[in-house]
Fold each of these.
Amino acid sequence: MSQPRRRSRAPKPPVETTIDRWLPTGEGCGSHGDREVHAWGALPGERVMVQVRKRKAGIWHGMVAEVLEASADRVEPLESHYLCCSPWQVVRPDLENGLKTALVREMASRHGVELPSFTVQGAVEVGYRNKLEFGFTGTDEGLSLSFFVRGGSGWRMPLDGCVLANEPINVVARAMVARLNQLGLSPRTTKSLILRSNRAGQVVAGLYVRDRVPTIGAFDDLEPLVGWRVYLSNPKSPASVVDETLEEYGAAAIREQLGSAGFELTDRSFFQVNVPRFETALEAMKRHVLPDRPIVDLYAGVGSIGIGLGRPGTLFVESDPQCVECLTSNCQAAGLESPTILAQPAEAGLPDFPSESTVIVDPPRVGLHAKVVRVLAERRPSRLIYLSCNPDSQLRDLSLWRDAFRVVDFEAFNFFPRTPHVESLAILEPL
Ligand SMILES: C[S@@+](CC[C@H](N)C(=O)[O-])C[C@H]1O[C@@H](n2cnc3c(N)ncnc32)[C@H](O)[C@@H]1O
């Protein structure tokens, strides 16, 4: 891949360290003199040179610059930008689920939570992501797709697609960047490209631009692409937020099927990125939902859990207006009887629900708001199902419920192979 045109500031010389353990984040931890060093892309047992990017609370944070003595558990990464998207590309794939299991167990003991026995499940593969957001950067050859370099420097690494994404996403992204180069667009004007696909191989896309640009036009011969939009987006904000739609071609949404329920997905709505793995988790949740009792689905997104369970009278709570819109139409399309949808933050107050309900929570990475933790501890539903993309915050919340609930089952799924992330599912009953 070509190099960025603008050279970055000369980095400080890397520091040498021996890595002695994994951190819960998936970084290797070592020391340099009396400094603790956290390094992405470094494995326990390795002697490495670490390029320090940040100093925070006395700890040096960075990424591996050179491996002086490699661990037997190291493999070649699949792509040169692996530290941007999936730093565990250098870890032997057959060890990944075991490592994740050990890290979650360690987090549980740090939070003082006793878990039933479990192991992380799921194939360690690539090409699973059905959504990806690329940025742009300038190179000697023109505009390129990019990801941020880890460490908050704001530097961007040029790339030509990503192995985590399924192939239709990469095919469309490459064709789009080629068109933008034909039109002579620069990274100053182009903000981001968000692509969403389904298992049928269809793609919808949104290109976010900071200024009005010449018409980009349709892609008539680009087979996976069934619809795309050009959005004008505030040049002062780094976020991909829509201020105005400048161009519109083809379908606004594609459909994905989860069991018997169909879901409409746009380039902008939330949906689980690894659908087959999510289906495994959904099956596990189905086994734990109390029969013939009401369901409350908090942090409901577009309804993939609550609609998938298909129980009449389900109460959904979701704060994002885009998701609420999709949730409403997904409930109708699935023929779900008498759903109630509360478009508000969960911490704004939960309506009354029968204590024999099954309550499902699936919050963002930060975990539950303290008010939600408190309200659920007070109401003590008969069954509480907690799905999380961040076991660390989930286990923190479970530790706060020590006097209210006990964990009766715990499972973990490899939703995000070749990255340190893991999805975990806790089933709780009141004490
Ligand atoms: C991890 S997603 C889960 C979505 C859904 N359960 C699914 O499986 O697709 C978290 C969802 O919580 C929503 N959310 C974030 N903060 C919230 C809050 N304070 N109250 C309610 N929903 C919130 C987000 O918009 C997002 O849809």
Note: The mean pLDDT is 94.
Amino acid sequence: MTRIITLCSGKGGAGKTFLTANLGAALAEYRRDVVVVDANLTTPNLGFHLGVPLYPTTLHDVLKGKAKISDALYEHSPGLKIVPAGIALRDLQGTDARDFPNALLDLLGNTDIVLIDSAAGLGREALASLETADELVLVTNPELPAVADALKAAKLAEQLGTRVSGVVLNRVAGKKHEMKQHEVLTMLDHMNLLAEIPEDSAVQQAIARRMPVIHHAPRSKASMAIRRLAGRMLGYQQRLKEPWYARMFSFLR
Ligand SMILES: Nc1ncnc2c1ncn2[C@@H]1O[C@H](COP(=O)(O)OP(=O)(O)O)[C@@H](O)[C@H]1O
Ligand SMILES: [Mg+2]
């Protein structure tokens, strides 16, 4: 069965697009078939993170009824495919975010995991992603405005019947002015913390090189945290926390 997961934050700039691209790449390393979908119909940029901003057929063509979703599906690297959105202004004419859930139907059954990069805000575009998904991964930063918006997104998901898997706390720099992890979680009604991703200059370097940071700098702190997140989402949490010698002993046993 295909898992449809949306990454949503409410606030823009929290790291949804960066995480969608990298989580997709990390889940593919776990040998899952993953499709990442750019659901930012007005300001798409997932293609930039994955190195190919211009695609001949996009989600916009699918929403206009001009193409099937399989025509807008491109292979990025082994196990990872992308459904990009059109980046030209004219792509917007004649598209309606309400058609988004139906447009994705054909992906079901052909893939293990669909990751939807949601638009900022909680307007029609973001709503379409929340409605389409089975699970919500909330993305936030350790600052009050981001956490307040994340809380709204979580409440909206609950109203729509989308399960909230937990929250990813992104861009943690350990600065004095930042909210502490427990403060964020308290504000989010003690939600499950899926991962804490550090502020890491390797992320910006990777974006400039238009490739996922887990490919550009696989040993960077951000990459390691993203891989742990991917493992955790697949239920491998315990094993990853064990030290290497414990894993060796369990293998010998
Ligand atoms: N962990 C991180 N470390 C450093 N920079 C980050 C990190 N996460 C995100 N960024 C920066 O924040 C910017 C905004 O992230 P993006 O994924 O586009 O946010 P959103 O999609 O939520 O609007 C990125 O372009 C990148 O420069
Ligand atoms: Mg984005």
Note: The chain has a mean pLDDT of 92.
